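Task: fold both queries, return tokens.
Query 1:
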Amino acid sequence: MVLGKLKDEIERIGRRALEKGLIKILPRNPNILTVSSLLIAFPTPLIVLMHVYWAYITALVLLILASGFDMLDGLVARYWGRTSKLGAFLDSTLDRYVDFIALIDLWLIHDGGFLGTIFLLLALLGSLMTSYARARAEALGVRMLGVGLLEREERLLLILAILIIYIITQLGSIIFYGLLLLAVLTNVTAVERLLVVVKSLSGGP
């Protein structure tokens, strides 16, 4: 998938940036980056409520920064050998908040009426179930990395892409159909993971 390839390329760029000196200015504690990601994204719903062009751009920049910090926390943890169960828990938990905030941002920009709200709720449900399915499956010993059409990183990239296209075009339909696309893809991913777990735990071929 295009978004998957883009995610891999962004991760490669992040690793190269760390090796070329970025690591020197980042905190060695990856949990600081994890928490910073949420703090950066947190004000964006209030910003987009201003409904002016510069507010949308500001929200986009903040979400990109939040995504960058979210990517870097894992890279920093592995670079310094500071991976931990606490870090994994914080990362997974706070990521859900950032996901929620990013989706709410889209809806606040253009709610799309009743259908738009339904699409938002379905996208939120699909996002949560995708993450829950992975967490529960891995707790049962079923590996979920790379399983599913739209993993968390691709999902966030898609949200950012929708926001960028909206800023360029100023067409509310971009948000409307973007939420529809997210609603479909997130729930398809959740179902994919459900089927993989059922097959694995039932001893299927």
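Query 1 returned. Query 2:
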Amino acid sequence: MRKFTKFISHHPRLVLLIMTMLLIPSIISYKNTGVNYNILSYLPADLKSTQGQNILDKDFKNAATVMVILDGSDRDAEELKKEIMKIDGVEDVISRTSIIGDSIPSDFLSDKIKNIFYSKGSTLMMVKFNEPASSFKTMNAIESIRNIQSNKKYLSGVSSLVKDTKDLIDKETVIYVGLAIVLGLIILSITNESTVIPFVFMLTIGYAVIYNFGTNIFLGEISYLTKAIAAVLQLAVTMDYSIFYITGMLKKRKKK
């Protein structure tokens, strides 16, 4: 072990080169590691809601659905329905015309039908997808539905919730990590006499975080919670160790 540590301390440039080269496979592995955004997969299998969702998926192939609420008339709803059906990943769109056709005017419909498909000038449709709610194909289809030019519309359902969760994590994780790095640099700059050491710490911790995410490829996929908090958590833990390490090293130098 002493020979190994001596080699590292006497060949810093070589070690830095090897560390940098290792970033390449780590980044590639991270890009190819799946992220599980399926919230129900983290719940116990014996829960009624989980069992019901599994039945919808296996028996009825109806687990990946989105409710679309459109502000507008039946004509607006039909135009939107045609556009949604063109999207890759959409299996079917169920609207009023899917059940009773378009030959009956809405004024002649029973109150029961009206209460299902209409409310305060809005029309309800249900979109079914080919793949599970957490698949990227389904999430891309939801994004395409949102981008369709139409009257104001709202999306609801498990599939939409999964998509919103993904977008929120992808957006805010960068902010949290950035804040953690800035605050970490401030703390390290205050507690250290050197102005270089804080940046060296952050560089080595950043390398370690990338290595950590890269090794997740052996797991096949990771939880979206892991993706959200792993970097900040590792930064916090390793920063403590780094402070202890540099403090001990400086004390030994002073004794010499």
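Both queries returned. Flag for query 2: The chain has two domains: 42-156, 158-255.
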